[in-house]
Write a sequence for this structure.
């Protein structure tokens, strides 16, 4: 299809030459208007679409959850979580590796992004592992890989964007991400056991279990640990929407840092709001321009035509979903998760629905496979974070991550083969 080639090929070409994503999307949209004969539409339509898109209650969840994560990173919340995770599982072989995964899983239920996870906990985790004698490459690998759990567990920003675009309940997506996130965490810990047994990775001997230390660190972390329960429990019971959960999380983080622990100054708060403003503005600008891109797609009829072609393919749904996963893995190497979801959801979701795929199951698989891109070259953002934290070479970081791609890919294959893992929790909610 000529139109699809213009939309996707032109966009990738413009990004390949170094244009910012938001500029590439905008230029591609106008080129598509000219090529497809719809160039008579007024230019003002783009600004109207952008404003209309951002005037959306659901999207308010994005800056709110980013703010909550920034406030927690500024105070002592992340340190308290990691100390508790260390006391809980640190007595096992490769204990700090297990603690790394547990802490990342807990923090994922507060931050919603892989980058926030790696940036917030990464330096703390790697410093602790280095001091205990862990191999630095292994420390970087497990820290980077465990950050992939961030976009899977609620409150995932990627799932918010997917649910908004695909017209799928965000609350159902949040519930659907719980089991895959826990499954991936367990497989990461299993890989740590394998690496420790092989003695190819330097890991210190385990320390004795100390129940008193678990109780002490647990008391220090009990209030931060309430946040996941508040977010998930509130959405599950219908007490508040996912967007309102973002506001609750931000207020709760502010109370913890400013009033309870008193390690959050006005200066710290200013920087937290500033980081939130910059990150949110970048994401929302891309969303606004992408909405115009998606609107043109629908107007020309590309998703409808692609859906018809996919529906006509005589292929088992499991093979079709596997093909989609391979495509997303490739795309994730070159584009961020949010950008990929914004661009490809209007194209692939109608095709997936026409083939009989569940939109919740499809969304979880899509987000997980795209999230792998944060730890794969050439543009993995978490890779660059690890280089800055560890001072290792880029190639060393990439090599250290390779063993942990096995648990991630295994998680994806299990989810493709067993859709029930993503759908059984949302069903009691009526989805």
């Amino acid at each position: 299809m000529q139109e699809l080639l213009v939309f996707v090929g032109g966009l990738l070409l413009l990004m390949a030459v170094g244009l910012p994503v938001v500029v590439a999307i905008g230029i591609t949209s106008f080129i598509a208007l000219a090529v497809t004969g719809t160039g008579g539409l007024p230019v003002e339509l783009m600004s109207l679409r952008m404003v209309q898109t951002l005037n959306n209650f659901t999207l308010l969840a994005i800056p709110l959850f980013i703010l909550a994560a920034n406030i927690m990173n500024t105070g002592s919340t992340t340190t308290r979580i990691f100390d508790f995770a260390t006391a809980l599982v640190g007595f096992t072989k490769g204990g700090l590796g297990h603690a790394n995964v547990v802490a990342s899983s807990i923090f994922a239920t507060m931050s919603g992004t892989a980058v926030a996870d790696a940036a917030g906990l990464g330096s703390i985790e790697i410093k602790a592992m280095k001091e205990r004698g862990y191999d630095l490459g292994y420390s970087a690998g497990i820290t980077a890989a465990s950050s992939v759990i961030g976009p899977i567990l609620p409150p995932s920003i990627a799932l918010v964007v997917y649910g908004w675009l695909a017209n799928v309940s965000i609350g159902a997506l949040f519930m659907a991400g719980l089991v895959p996130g826990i499954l991936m965490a367990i497989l990461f810990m299993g890989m740590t056991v394998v690496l420790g047994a092989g003695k190819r990775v330097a890991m210190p001997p385990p320390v004795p279990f100390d129940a008193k230390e678990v109780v002490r660190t647990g008391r220090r972390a009990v209030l931060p640990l309430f946040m996941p329960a508040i977010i998930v429990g509130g959405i599950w019971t219908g007490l508040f929407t996912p967007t309102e959960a973002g506001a609750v999380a931000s207020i709760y983080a502010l109370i913890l840092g400013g009033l309870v622990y008193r390690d959050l100054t006005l200066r710290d708060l200013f920087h937290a709001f500033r980081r939130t403003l910059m990150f949110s503005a970048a994401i929302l600008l891309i969303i606004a321009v992408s909405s115009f891109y998606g609107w043109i797609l629908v107007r020309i009829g590309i998703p409808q035509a692609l859906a018809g072609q996919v529906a006509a393919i005589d292929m088992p749904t499991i093979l079709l979903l596997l093909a989609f996963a391979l495509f997303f893995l490739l795309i994730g190497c070159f584009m961020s998760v949010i950008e990929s979801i914004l661009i490809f959801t209007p194209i692939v979701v109608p095709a997936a629905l026409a083939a009989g795929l569940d939109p919740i199951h499809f969304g979880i698989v899509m987000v997980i496979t795209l999230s792998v891109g944060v730890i794969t070259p050439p543009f993995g953002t978490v890779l660059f974070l690890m280089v800055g934290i560890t001072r290792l070479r880029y190639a060393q970081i990439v090599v250290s991550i390779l063993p942990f791609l096995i648990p991630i890919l295994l998680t994806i294959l299990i989810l493709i083969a067993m859709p029930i893992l993503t759908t059984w929790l949302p069903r009691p909610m009526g989805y």
Summary: The chain has 21 helices and no strands. The mean pLDDT is 83. The CA atoms of residues 100 and 125 lie 6 Å apart. Residues 266-300 form the longest helix (35 residues).
